[in-house]
Structures are given as C-alpha cells and as structure tokens.
Amino acid sequence: MKNYLLGVAGVAAMLLVSSPLQAAEDFTDLTQGDDFYSDIQVLAEKGIVSGLPDGSFGADQSLSRGEAAIMVSRALDLNTEGASHNFEDVPSSGEVAEAIGAAVDANILDGFPDGSFRPDEAMTREQMAIILSQSYDLVPAAHFMSHAHDVERQRHSFEEISELYRSNVTSGYPDGTFQPENEITRGEFSAFLHRAMNAEIDPPVEELNDPIVFVKQAENILFEGILEGYQDGYGHIGEEDDGKTAFSTLRPSFSPYYSHDYLDNIEQRYYNDEFWWNHLMYDFPTQMPYESITVSEGENEVEVIFAVEASPEGPITHGAYNAYYHLEKVDGTWLIVDHVQD
C-alpha cells in the first residue's frame, strides 16, 4: 500500500511546492505519451494540480484525501477563504484546511463517523466516484444495470459508480471490474477529474465535442421522461388525466437533443400506441449492457453505434444487436435525427 507518511501541512506542500500554473512537461517524471499526460497537462495549466518537492508529479503515487480536497476545490473554484471545519485531525487554518472546509460545505466531501477526516489516508476509487458525482452533473445512473462485475446494485456507491461509466469518465478494468476499494493514484484521479469536467453538456450544442456523452445524456432524459407515463414501471403509458405526465408537457425537455420529426415519432410510438416496459428498455441501448461504442464523424453529421450484448436470461431477453444514432447539425445546433437497430 502506498500511504503518505506526512502531516496535514505536508499534504498541502506536496501540491503547492511548484508554481500554481505550469505544464506537464515541467514535471521531471512525465513525458508526452505517458499515461494521463494530457489530463495532467490540462489540469496543471489551469492551476488545479502541481508537483512534488522533488519536481516530479508522482502520477503512480496514491492520492490522499487532503490532496483530493485541494484539487476539487480548485477545479470547482470554490470559495475557500476562511472556510472552516470541525475535524479534530485537520488544522484550523492553511490551504488544506480551507479546501476541506469548502468541500464539506459544498456537500462534496464528508468525514468519518468518529468525527475524523483522515486527510493523509489514501483515497479509494469508490470515494473518488462519490466526490465526482457530487461535483458534476453526470449522466444519471441506470438503476437496474451494473456496469462492473464487482459493484452490486446494493452497494452504497452503486449509483455514483454507474454515473462514471455512463458519462465516459471510466470504463473500468479489462476484466470487467471497477475495484472500488483500490487506492487511486494521483495520475488516475487527474484523468477522472478532467473527464468529469468535460462530461457536462448544456444544450443547445453548437460544437459536438463528445457525441457519445451527448447521446447518453439525451437518451437518459428521454427514457426517464417516458417512464413518467408508466404506472409504477408497468402497463401502458397513461394519459395526463390519469395522474401521469403528458408528452406535450415533457417535450420541451427533449427538444434540445432531438429533431422535431424524431419527437413526433417518439410520441406516436410510446404515447399513441400500446407499449410495454420491457419493450421500452430494449429500445434504449444506452440503458443496456453494451460491448463497444464507435463514432463515425462527417462535417455536419455524426453516427454513434452501440454494440449491445446479448441477454439470454432475466427480465429482458434478446440477442446481440447494433443501435445506430444519426446526429445532424440543424439550424446551427446538433440534434439526434434518427435511431435504428439491426
């Protein structure tokens, strides 16, 4: 295990010894092409991270909870001046103390039941997921689907970890695990933080920087909206006078993502015809386990392809299939104009 044997003041010094603004190439142990180099580069230029006393970055070293508080408070530009806390194991003043106080006030970080914060304790991947979920507006979790073999639905951090997967902040390990209790390194946290910073989409979108996140966010909003027309998740879509939400009420929340004609088809398919819950889930591949996602880009059109895994058993049974989302730039903004499956 890699644990920092430093006092709290030492934690702050590790992040602040270098100039607040620098480039990744300034770190003695980083060269272009290294894992997480570009993520560290961006964060260093923004003054979110800096190096260790020996001039290195220490990408492979465990990240402490105190360091995480400083990085997140900088990334979110929290007002740390004079921020206070009630943790007995954290000094009453100094940058790390103020960063912890500001992060706790913002409901991003919290202490332990014994009243401690443990600023020198190594942060776990699970704790990282909770912090980033609290900090950024990520694609909400799919409550009925686990992305990692070792993250059960009953786990207290299931939703937060699911959000990281659905927002392309993480893809987990090659063996299909997330390993939530593993310590996270400074390099890994830098990468996750940078991806989370870029995962938020505020439509209308004029420049499509990440079409996968755009499609996932759009489909989740549409999926959750359509579910408002179901009775407890089962049966047919109800009418507004049944206490359910009419499509005309929900449509404005969908229109920043979908073309007018596409939404007309959605209304016909789900609101004017009989449609069942299990069929609805099949129609939304972003809610299903998928093997891969590919993107084909043109000047004013983009295609995002989800290769959905076969599901031979469970509430939804189906073979493997591909789902194609066609995006076009309509009147200056990107919209989903078509979705077909084979």
Count every beta strand, where a strand is a DSSP E run of 2 or more residues: 4
Largest sheet: 4 strands, antiparallel
- End-to-end Cα distance, whole Å, is 48 Å
Order of helices and strands: HHHHHHHHHHHEEEE
What is the count of helical runs?
A: 11
CA-based shape: elongated
Task: Kindly give the count of domains.
Answer: 2
Describe the strand arrangement of the main beta sheet, using strand numbers.
1-2-3-4
How much is the average pLDDT?
81
What Rg is obtained from the alpha carbons, in whole angstroms?
22 Å
Give a structural overview.
This protein has 342 residues and is of the alpha+beta class. It has two domains: 8-198, no CATH class; 211-341, no CATH class. It has eleven helices and four strands. It has helices at residues 8-16, 37-45, 65-75, 95-105, 125-135, 158-166, 186-198, 211-227, 247-254, 260-271, 277-283, and strands spanning 290-297, 301-308, 321-330, 333-341. Strands 1-2-3-4 form a four-stranded antiparallel β-sheet. A hairpin with a 2-residue loop joins strand 3 (321-330) and strand 4 (333-341). It starts with 7 loop residues before the first helix and ends with a strand.
